[in-house]
Amino acid sequence: MQRSRTTLVEQDGKQYLVTELDEAPNLDHIETVAGSTSEFYMDWELADTRKVRPAQRRLFFALLNDIMEWSITPKDFLKELFYMQYSIYSDGKEISLADDSTNSVSDGNILLDLVIDFMFTWRVPFKKGYELLPRNEAYYMFECCRHRVCCVCGAEHADIHHVDVIGSGVNRNHVDHTKRHVMCLCREHHTEIETIGPTAFAYKHHVTTAGIKLDADTLKRIGVQGNYSANQRGS
Q1: Residues facing residue 15 across a β-bridge
Q2: What is the pLDDT of residue 234?
Q3: Nearest-CA neighbor of 154 among 140, 170, 164, 166?
Q4: Where on the phi/psi map is residue 181: left (φ > 0), alpha (ψ -120 to 50), or beta?
Q5: How many C-beta atoms surround the C-beta of residue 63 within 10 A?
Q6: In angstroms, what CA-CA distances link 140 with 28, 121, 143?
């Protein structure tokens, strides 16, 4: 993960985001994955530099308890394991969730994402941690969709529910699903949200029904057929 600083610059009445890299980019790698060094796409996010929150610490250790019960692995070992994974992911940066930590909210979110990803990948049941899990977070909703797990009850082989309703008679294979908000629901909860409506559903289950947008690669990987040629070159 290459670190950088981004500055907002205004020139000739237009606004630009100028990114200054900490080190020269690996052009061979860029050409391999993007096919070109003259034009390519990149993801970036706005760092939350506030000090890591106690709520993040509570969630982290609650999730470790869930993994510990599932795997019969000491909590201290799991803690060091995920701290090491964070260090590898962040190119050697260390993390601490203690009160005197100098890490940021964004650092804590990366650590939590690594734990949540592990739990979805290995089908670790969410128990105590599930009660604290910030289910309005996009990453949780993304992982539910990616692993086809119901965001309400955790049931597997769940459906992809379109928040942006597709009209009757429309061929879903001809729809660009990247432009629509989705969420993952089991058949029971899928039927329920369509019966009582999203407002009542969100109030009853304490989940967001705003949904998220998925990229074409993810949609294809989880088996959502559609027309993606307009937004993904080489598809």
Answers
A1: 10
A2: 38
A3: 140
A4: beta
A5: 25
A6: 33, 13, 5
Is a pLDDT exceeding 60 seen at residue 210? yes
What's the rounded Cα separation, in Å, for the pair 116 and 120? Answer: 6
Q: Is the pLDDT of residue 162 over 80?
A: yes
Taking only the tens place, the pLDDT of each residue in 78-87 is: 999 999 999 9
* Assessment of whether the complete model's pTM goes beyond 0.85: no
Indicate the domain borders of the chain: 4-34, 50-134, 144-235
Strand-pair partners of 18: 7
CA distance 193 to 215: 24
Q: Which of 209, 211, 210, 154 is nearest to 182 (CA)?
A: 211
Distance, CA of 36 to CA of 231 (rounded, Å): 17
Amino acid 235: pLDDT: 37
CA atoms of 104 and 118, how far apart (whole Å):
22
Phi-psi region at 8: left, alpha or beta (left = phi > 0; alpha = psi -120 to 50)? beta
Q: Are 140 and 134 within 8 A, CB to CB? A: yes
Tell me: pLDDT of 169 over 60.
no
CA distance 15 to 12: 8
